Request: fold
Amino acid sequence: MLFKPKQKRYHFPMQICINEQRIEQVKERVFLGVVLDKHLVWKPRISHVARKISKSVGVINRARLFLPEHYLRTLYYCSVYPYLHYCIIVWGSTYKTNLRRLVSLQKQGITIISKSSIFKELELLKTFRY
Reply:
């Protein structure tokens, strides 16, 4: 993968060969569980995290009918929080517009658990400064 700016002015074909073997260029690659894209704008990573969190929020929503709040909070910490927290120092500095989807999903999960949108009441770390 070649990392390059998004501007078109740097558009030139480049081929990399090692031991006379041409290396295929890719637009994105998973490295240590983090999806990297060639422009480092983190949209593929955020889409991946959003899909995982959305599924977990759905599970929490169904479980709220049967489980007390402290179990729902444990479920949140097991199934939502790790996706938000993993390597956030790398990808969390992306544009706020990219992070809106994750903030919205996080708020949905916490609203389901607490039946209100108060982060402090549950003592949950607010992952993003928004």
Notes: The longest strand covers residues 28-31. The helical segments are 43-63, 69-79, 81-85, 88-91, 96-114.
